[in-house]
């Protein structure tokens, strides 16, 4: 593999802003523990509990890249303003909720809803991590 090809491969926001992701990708670092969940840190300085189940698309992306869906993440960050009330329907584990909550700040609030009882438990656990946010 030539140097130019390597540069183009790692010249992505998920690698530039979170260089540890490069090592995870190169060395295929995985959590081989028997835990069903692990803690991850999102770029906006927020912890999130994710599943180690490789079939879960959101958790797998967060584990591999440090974010889930760069375009959507960026759009939410740009479209949400401080002091707003934001709504997350089908909140899943709260990834998008955390983006909006960080952006609306203490003067805003985020209302989130997750109908699946098992996933709702994960969402609730994550909301407990985010004491400084109004959810």
TrEMBL record:
Protein name from the UniProt record: FkbM family methyltransferase
Listed transmembrane segments: none
Organism: Anabaena cylindrica FACHB-318
NCBIfam families: fkbM_fam
InterPro entries: FkbM_mtfrase (IPR006342), SAM-dependent_MTases_sf (IPR029063)
Keyword Transferase among record annotations: yes
Keywords: Methyltransferase, Transferase
Molecular-function annotations in GO: methyltransferase activity
Keyword Transferase attached: yes
